[in-house]
Every structure is written in structure tokens, then in C-alpha cells.
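User: I'm putting together notes for a lab meeting next week and I want to include a structural view of one of the chains we've been expressing. I don't have a solved structure, so I'd like a prediction I can at least talk through. The sequence is below, exactly as it appears in our construct file.
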Amino acid sequence: MKLAVLTTLVAGAAAFTSNSPAAFRTKDTALFAGPFKSKVQYVPCISTEDLPEPGFATSGVAGGLAICIAVDEKGSVYALGDKCPPVNQPLSFGRVRGGCIEDPVLGTKFNLKTGEVEGKWCPGGIGKLLGGLFEPSGVPVFPVKTGKGVVEVQVDVNAKANFESQYWSGVLDAQGKANGKYY
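Assistant: Thanks for the context. Below is the predicted structure for the 183-residue chain, given as C-alpha cells.
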């Protein structure tokens, strides 16, 4: 029974794990391949009123991408991808200290400036089991600026459209139309 539960847990984690966090950082990867040219620009993510206190993080959406907005002890603001490897839980639930944000479930620490893993990979709790099944991987980081009552994050606004352009569309697609359009 324990083996069945373990197998189910591992299979579930693998289903939600990306192959490479670097895919977000380079424009020559499959993530950015699609019919739309890359268009990098600053877009609003959250209002400055919604910025968390130093040492905490919150989530937002910029250009259709889930973004973690973290504020360090000194008040500096950082933007990272809000999907925490290896199982993609929200990084924005993490605690910020010492130039890193810590995954609240598995304990991995990610550098706020580079997104790379700092210290041990998945050191806590169930992370010891899951961490051994996956290669250590970081999270994407994005340039961020604050002003005029809004926090803006620089993202490729066509990344989501390019990713979704690779969805299958046919007679039985989610929209119900053969061309993939909504009714």
C-alpha cells in the first residue's frame, strides 16, 4: 500500500514539473516558439498598496504569467516566477530573508536576484523524498520597477499566447469549436 501511495505521489509531482526553469530565461527555447514574435515590455502586476511588508511576498499576474513579488528586509522589490519547483506550489507563500525566498513546503531557498537554488535542494519534510527524484532547478526572475501607484514587471507579453498556440484544437477542444475560438 505504501508503495502505491509513493508511486502516485511521484507521478503526480512529475506531472506538474517543468523540464527546465531556464526555458523562461532564454528566448530560443520551445516555450517562446510560436507564431507570435517575442515582445518584452513592462506591464502592471500589482498596485503599490498591495506590496507586502519587508520579509514577505505576494502574488500577481503580469502578461498572463504568475509572478511572485517579494520584498526583502531592506524594502527592495523583486519579481520571480510564482511556480516553485519541483511541484509548482506558489513561491509567494514563502518567507523572504537573507537575499532569498524559501519554499514554505519543501524548504528550498531561491536567490532573489538570480532565481538559482541557494543551499540544499528540498531539505525539509516530504522534500527529502521528492527532491531526490528531480534535478535542482531555479525559478525565473524578471526586472521590476515601482512608481505611479503600480508595480510593473518586464515580461514577454506574447509568451502565454505562444504557449497556448501549441494546444490541440479540433472538434472536441475545450471551446467546442474546430478552430479553437470561443462561442
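A couple of points you could mention at the meeting. The first strand starts at residue 40 and ends at 47. DSSP finds three helices and 13 strands in the chain.

User: Perfect, that's what I needed.
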